[in-house]
């Protein structure tokens, strides 16, 4: 039995057709340490993801997920994890710019969850244009 969690996201391809992706996550206890709660995502929420694609079509390992704000006045959440070491330049920049909303064991030197305001999101998109080297379905 696989102890990992999974999430299924529906995407729209370049040609306008829809496809679903199954993305593997960490076990539930680790997700809680990384800032995930039952309110983190709900069916129908808009998300942007970075993944490590699997050899199996439409499957992958989640690297980072941006859960877009649910209302105009709310903040988004960026959950960055799954092989992104905390001492990398990208993670250091995120830590310098964004409030933290959850952490994994500090001995791993990784911060996993950041709160992202609309202004911070615009600034990050300007500073890190494109997909930052990750595959986005």
Feature tags:
single chain; 137 residues; alpha+beta; seven-stranded mixed beta sheet; 3 helices; globular
Mean pLDDT metric? 77
- Tell me the helix content: 10-25%
Number of helices: 3
Radius of gyration: 15 Å
Total tally of structural domains: 1
In terms of DSSP E residues, the strand content is: 25-35%
Describe this protein's structure.
By secondary structure, the protein is of the alpha+beta class. It has one domain (6-127). Helix content is 18%, strand content 33%. The protein contains three helices and seven strands. Strands 1, 2, 3, 4, 5, 6 and 7 form a seven-stranded mixed β-sheet that branches. The protein is globular, with a radius of gyration of 15 Å. The protein starts with 5 loop residues before the first strand and ends in a 10-residue tail after the last helix.
